[in-house]
Design a protein that fits this description.
Layout lengths: L1 H5 L7 E7 L6 H17 L4 E7 L4 E3 L5 E3 L2 E2 L6 E4 L7 H10 L1 H8 L6 E5 L2 H7 L7 E2 L6 H7 L4 E2 L5 E4 L2 E4 L4 H13 L2 H11 L22 H12 L7 H8 L3 H12 L3 H19 L4 H8 L4 H12 L3 H19 L1
Parallel strand pairs: 1-2, 1-6, 2-5, 6-7, 7-11, 8-9
Antiparallel strand pairs: 3-4, 10-11
Helix pairs in contact: 2-7, 2-8, 10-11, 12-13, 12-15
Protein name: Helix-turn-helix domain-containing protein
Keywords: DNA-binding, Transcription, Transcription regulation
GO molecular function: DNA-binding transcription factor activity; sequence-specific DNA binding
């Protein structure tokens, strides 16, 4: 019995330390924090828990004169850490930063082997100085290749690669290398449908996203907690078995109460809104896969292909093939670029 119960316990959020040290360029940390928040919102639960950690006494002076107030110090345990780079144009710049950050480098060197460490740009030099990538493959900013090769001879450098993951350590090139790190992280941990939704919400113009009829059932845009739960529930239920009474039972409210809430927050009738949740899944599948409508119909539990296509055309004014052609190009190129 204990093992059966434990297998159903929810997995805790992955705690990710956003490391801030004097002189660092923290833009990538802000982008990562926003991305993790968007993913949590899309999933409907906390999958990633980013926390800001300072290599100092609460206040850290970063690049270009800004000062950040940190919530946590280095002793705060995390499952993974994201380490940004610093501005360096010469080997001397690297040497000066490594000398200034000797205590921080010592701390990096003492991190347990099981702890994931992701870094980019010249943050890789700090990880190399800590000995964390000795005998590991790694990449970094290409214009300082010779300086890094000369100083860190135990590292298996490959400056032709934009991002490299070797065991628990991920390195990426360039000041915007955090995107390569985050993309690789999402590909390995998130369903294509989640990546697609987050990409639509954060990376591309509104005109290139899916049909506006689905906006009321976008998890990432839904602020009402009960409706977030209901979207997640409806996505798991076969289309043929989804109805207002069962949805109300799931939320432990009356059908009338649920109907009013849906209408209040979405300006769409309850029955139509529940249908849109399933049709949004159809739209997602059309864009994130090459599956036939027949296959999608079976996977999502619709009664038959003909009724699905009629409902989809009624909701969007488009056939499934027209929808795939019009909205699929931006998503396909985005997902392909991450692989």
């Amino acid at each position: 019995m204990p093992s059966s119960l434990s297998s159903h316990r929810p997995q805790p959020a992955m705690r990710i330390g956003l490391l801030v040290y004097p002189g660092c360029m923290p833009a990538g940390l802000f982008a990562a924090s926003d991305l993790f928040q968007a993913i949590n919102r899309r999933i409907g639960k906390s999958v990633f828990e980013p926390i800001w950690i300072g290599a100092g006494n609460g206040r850290v002076n970063v690049n270009n004169g800004a000062t950040l107030e940190m919530d946590y110090a280095l002793h705060e345990p995390c499952d993974a850490y994201l380490l940004p780079g610093f501005w360096a144009e010469t080997a001397t710049d690297i040497d000066l930063m490594l000398d200034r950050q000797s205590l921080f480098i010592d701390w990096l060197g003492q991190l347990p082997e099981r702890t994931a460490l992701w870094t980019y740009c010249m943050g890789v030099a700090l990880v190399a100085a800590a000995g964390k990538i000795d005998r590991h493959e790694a990449t970094a900013t290409w214009w300082l290749e010779q300086s890094l090769r000369k100083r860190f001879t135990a590292v298996a450098w490959d400056f032709q690669q934009p991002v490299i993951e070797d065991r628990k350590i991920m390195t990426a090139a360039g000041a915007n290398g955090y995107w390569a790190v985050l993309s690789k992280l999402l590909i390995s941990r998130m369903p294509a449908e989640v990546i697609r939704d987050v990409e639509q919400a954060m990376l591309v113009p509104r005109s290139n996203t899916g049909h506006p009829v689905f906006r009321s059932v976008e998890m990432i845009a839904q602020s009402e907690p009960q409706l977030q739960r209901l979207i997640a529930y409806a996505q798991k239920v076969p289309a043929s078995g989804l109805n207002l009474s069962e949805a109300a039972r799931y939320l432990s409210v009356s059908s009338r109460t649920l109907s009013r809430k849906i209408d209040q927050h979405t300006q769409v009738s309850a029955g139509e809104w529940l249908r849109l949740v399933k049709l949004r899944q159809v739209a997602n599948a059309l864009l994130s896969s090459a599956s036939s409508v027949k296959t999608i119909c079976a996977e999502l539990g619709f009664t038959d292909e003909a009724s699905l296509m009629r409902a989809f055309k009624k909701a969007t004014g488009m056939t499934t093939s027209q929808y795939r052609q019009q909205y699929g190009h931006s998503v396909t190129s985005f997902v392909a670029s991450l692989k």
